[in-house]
Amino acid sequence: xxxxxxxLAVLFAMGLLFFSCxxxxxxxxxxxxxxxxxxxxxxxxxxxxxxxxxFYHLDKDTLESNVFENVNGKPxxxxxxxxxxxxxxxxxVVNASNEILVADDKTLKVSAVIPxxxxxxxxxxxxxxxxxxxxxxxxxxxIIDLQSNTVSGQIPYNPKPDSAYASWTEQMVQYxxxxxxxxxxxxxxxxxxxxxxxxxxxxxLSKGAEDVVLDNQNRIWVLCDGTIANPxxxxxxxxxxxxxxxxxxxxxxxxNTGPGNLTMNAAKDTLFYFYDGVFKMxxxxxxxxxxSIISGSGHNFYGLGVNPSNGDIYAGDALDYVQPGIVFQYNxxxxxxxxxxxxxxxxxxxxxx
Amino acid sequence: MRYLTLIWFLLMSFPILxxxxxxxxxxxxxxxxxxxxxxxxxxxxxxxxxxSSLLNNHxxxxxxxxxxxxxVFVKDYGPGMMATPGFRGTSYDQTxxxxxxxxxxxxxxGTQDLNLIPVFLLDGVDINFGGASLVNGSGxxxxxxxxxxxxxxxxxxxxxxxxxxxxxxxxxxLSVNYGTNKIWAGTKIYExxxxxxxxxxxxxxxxxxxQTENDAATKEYGLLQSIGWRPTEKDMLTANIWYQYTDRxxxxxxISDLNREYQIDASLRSDINYxxxxxxxxxxxxxxxxxxxxxxxxxxxxINEPSTNQRYNLKADINPEFKLxxxxxxxxxxxxxxxxxxxxxxxxxxNRLGAWADAGYDLSKKFQVGLVARTEEVNFxxxxxxxxxxxxxxxxxxxxxxLHINGGRNYNYPNLNDLYWYPGGNPNLQPEHTWFGxxxxxxxxxxxxxxxxxxxxxxxxxxxxxxxxxxPGSGSFWEAQNLKxxxxxxxxxxxxxxxxxxxxxxxxxxxxxYTPSTDQSLxxxxxxxxxxxxxxxxxxAAQALCKASFKQYHASLEYTYTGARNTTDIPxxxxxxxxxxxxxxxxxxxxxxxxxxxxxxxxxxxxxAIIWRPMPGRWYELSLxxxxxx
Lengths: 353, 630
What we know:
By secondary structure, chain A is mainly beta.
């Protein structure tokens, strides 16, 4: 009889555990006020569909998490690569969802979806009617009609020999009617005539050309991550004039470490980038800085931004790239001010003045 | 089907011409128990045997479907997609799968896709939990499975089974056993096609549209041939060969349907075994060869990637018998692994040379102790050892209450991708290690001769160190490193009630697993995963089964519950599935038929086993099985 009791107890315990409750999560109501602050772009883990947006309300010093889903009732998508503010709209480039979402800049309500763009990367409006979108494997730069929110064409870029990522293009800057586009795999800087939508020039740099910015002297800076190359090579930073002439080339010392996230301050006279830690470099500096202003020790820095209004540096730490990350906020000299818990892989920032 | 029929006749013609009489009584080979040593471990090490009668209910399914009704957690990406097993909160490459004792886990990827193993080809499955996995080999931290193909499990028999199901599923299989007590053979051949074009609600897309799963079609066929020869009463030679080909489209996630992917798997596995029996010992040698070819295509990323993976295995063992109540099996084994893919920068090779001993001693009729020990040298350099010490004690007579306890250490070598994949592979990786322990009881209560209650309760703990993790390196790629520590522990409880009488048989079974499996490593000062449940491992899972047969009718109702799982930041809710099977056996002339209708996911649950991977709602299947000469 004792055994029967034991058996019944086991059965009872199983039943209790089996019918245990499940937690439900209620999403907070969106504040609806996104006029002054910083958007944290949480890229999300590839194939997990967990990209998101957080808004740091500068006036209230509070962080509103997962705003996109709370406003729209839908997940943002898979791998939000970047966010661009133009003409009272936000353009959200969602890489692995193969689409761009157009949202109202006051409410973040989505008003249009531009679908079927192969792995889009970066967005740049080149006139009031059209924008360019780079991508990973699409064999060219996409032209977006901003009136109809459709893909209206493509500027072919398909270097030989052909391979999956031969046509991979990343960041862009515009100067006049010229648009400068980083060609990653072949290490090129493409110069596109925005009036004709044609590539007019191709400048050879170093493999891994990803980041492009324009300084206040109208010089173009291109950061090339050599760890993308196979076999890896030393990474480089180039400074060019708008005709495409290379004015300076800086070589990073450690072949195993890749720099990234080149960005500028509001005055466009200082460069910031990751090279394990955060580095700061004046645009007229003759050599690469030897010491970081923010140490990378214990961090996996992934997103970098400089607040144009006060020079605060925002560095997104992706931790292990799986768990939700942390954004560290520093002043312009690298002193830690505060940290914010974000979504997965905080990869960039958009400052709303 | 035309081809199947042709091959069937060709295969059949050889033994029929070579013998004058076929008689059930000529099959007495079951008297020779190849795995005699395993029996003595059963008291002390937890093993579940799924025999061919249980497999009969699931013959149109894959091993993934079958195991989803068990306490083994299956991480299933969807119909036709990859499915990997996980025991007791450990990862898929810490679960080992053997076929007749031959390791099937890919030396490249570390796992074996359970959706590529049709239940139809199997005659039995041994599920070995925790330390019991060391009986077959190392590395099964949570456990291992040994799939059994045995051409002599039944007397002269031929079986034809045809299945049609929802979403374009058609499966045909033939199974034949034939021969004499001197020479015998078993042949199994099957083919299956499925469109897997099921509808689902896509709650990732705007407007939650109802969509149809695209590009999920699969086509596969396989042949398993077993032969045996017993030249004398003391000698036996057996050989098996298994070829399987699968061509499957890989459907996209609910997130985007822009890409197109497919994968081809072609596997050849073969094994030859010789065994010699004397009155006070027996010994055997076994040689095997496996060749796994995989081709993967990805349209958007322009990937066309072939890879090959070969494994040669040679082992010898001896089972001496003693006057003392001592049982011993000892042997030695050499494994040569060769793999190649374009990401390796040339073929990679690994040699594993090892020895094992599995000993048990009966201190009394109630009290047994045992030890399984393995040692292995890799590339003639690294030496690793693993062991399980175990004991069992019968507290009450007639198996009313038996206690067992075991514990020890195990190791798991990195797979070749972890070591050599460019970029990110790390040739300096160390094997993963675990210290484990387990204790539990079993109880059989015979209420009457026809009514038995069986219950089990087991608690276990695995502390895994050197856990291999791919993490972002200082460059633009991720690197494999021995970084993580994991503590997987929990309890398993099960209870069953069996009734057997002349016309009515029924069984009611329930089981439950509670498995906290937590990350115990702090990878950075800001890491907040310390102590959190590992992703895709449910804390709670449960299964229930009601099975009955009355005269020529049979029916079963299966219930599974998979608890909520962590993914990254989005938790997946738990889900319950109910399957119902109903069938009837009948005879026309000398042929016995079994017509079975099955309904899967009876409650039409909308669920995801993997995030943003849709699973089918309610679907149906109809099988007709013909047993010739039964």
